[in-house]
Each structure stands twice: as C-alpha cells, then as structure tokens.
Amino acid sequence: MQLNNTTVLGTGVLGSQILFQTAYHGLPVIGFDISEEALEAAKTRLDSLVAVYGEFFGEPTKAQAARDSIKLTTDMALAVNNADLVIEAVPEDLKIKEQTYQKLASLAPEHTIFATNSSTLLPSDISPFTGRPEQFLALHYANHIWKNNTGEVMGTANTSKEAYEAVVDFAERTGLVAIRVLKEQPGYVLNSLLVPFLESASHLLVNEVADAPTIDTTWKIGTGAPFGPFEIYDIVGLNTAYHIASHGGETSKKFAELLKSEYIDQGKLGVATGEGFYKYD
Q1: Which terminus of the chain, N or C, has less C-beta within 10 A?
Q2: Domains of the chain, with CATH numbers?
Q3: What is the pLDDT of residues 215-273, one digit of tens each?
C-alpha cells in the first residue's frame, strides 16, 4: 500500500508546512480550509516557504516548483475525492475534530487513510468519529519540518498493521525520520519532553518569579540551547499554547488567560504574525 495523493485539512502554520514538505518531495498535494480568507493566509505562508526551502536545501528552482504544484480549496469533497492519505491539522479542539471527521468520512474514498497531526489528543479520542478506525492513526510533525524533520507515527489498538506501515513509508518518502511510537502516549515522544519544560516556564512567569526574557536567557546560558521557552512558544504559535494551557491545572489556566488577554486578543500570535512575546521582522 503506497500513499501518493495527499490532502491536508487545515492550512495554518503547520498545515502549510506539511503541504510544502509533501510537495517538495514530489507528491501531489491539496490543502483544504474553511474560508477564502484562510486560504489567502495560507498562500502567503506557502510563498514565504519558497525561500526557506530554497536556501536550506540549496535548490531554489525545486522549491518554486513545489510551491507551484500545491492546490488549495474550500471544497472538502474536491479536496479528498482522490486522496490516498488525508492529514488533519485543524485546531486542537475535540469538537472541531469530531465535526471535521464526520464530514470527511462521508466524502473520502473507502481506501483513504486518515492521519491526525494532533499534539495533545490521543488518536483513540478521535477514532470513533472517523468511520474507519482500522485506517486511522496519528502522524505528528514538528514545527519547521524542513530541519526538525521527525514524523511520529502512533496508532491505536484498532489501527491495522498495513495502514501503520503505509504511513511510516509515506513519512520516509517525504523526507521525515519516521519515529515509531509503540503505544499511545499523550504528547508522543517529542511533546512528552517539550510540554513539561514549557509548562514550567509558564508557571515561573505567571507566579512572577521572573519575566519571559530573563527565563529565556537563563535557559540558553545554562544549557547552550538555541531558544528559550518563550521563544519556542512564539515559534509554535500562541493559539496552540493557549489551547494546551487551557486544559491544564489552575496555574496553566492563568497562563492561558494571560495569553488570550495580552497577546491573542491583540493579534499577537507569535512568529507567524510578527509579534508574540517578542517582535519579529
């Protein structure tokens, strides 16, 4: 079973990167989102990735060809009518995912495999909505896919071996290092390490132990890491940080409130919008 025709549901920061990564490695791909406004934002993101991929891989012509090959639509039926694989990258909200998969299940061909890129929800949380639990699993990408090129593959007790291996093969054919997650684990491998680290930083901020630049500087000097936790929050996107924090404990919820009132409501979502905890060109 080889997966070629690919659809990405959701064209946000990571969805756009998934589209570009797939196209750059030569597979036909189409992106779906719910509005023309969302697709216009996606076009801007995709255009900006031409220079990123061209510089990183040293092949600007190939990067432009990849951008030119990507199709976008607000018509889900059109987006999935020939899909071998649908990668879902919609917001981290179980209700939104339920509605998305219920519609998707009625439109996609019987052979199509569904993969969620959810960072916080287990595949088994979503599986009942898919209508095809044996053909459903998770494929989790890291932000800045072109260099942080892990693809964490995690199934459920119902995922077929054939579907799992097909997604591992797809990950490898699209330039990823396939990480076989052997059992369901909230956060997979990467976020099981990353989220507690970021949460600790947010608690230091909310409890007024230190401000964000001080926390970042302390971490970078003390460990030699290239980014501090709040720089990572900006890269990941403050909307994603908000959704994760809002499902945490009391201190995490306070951090979520701070993110919403001081940043998200002001349109400051991180690197993608030019400002979050820091300002960016």
Answers
A1: C
A2: 6-180 (3.40.50.720), 194-273 (1.10.1040.10)
A3: 999 999 999 999 999 999 999 899 989 988 998 899 999 999 999 999 999 999 999 89
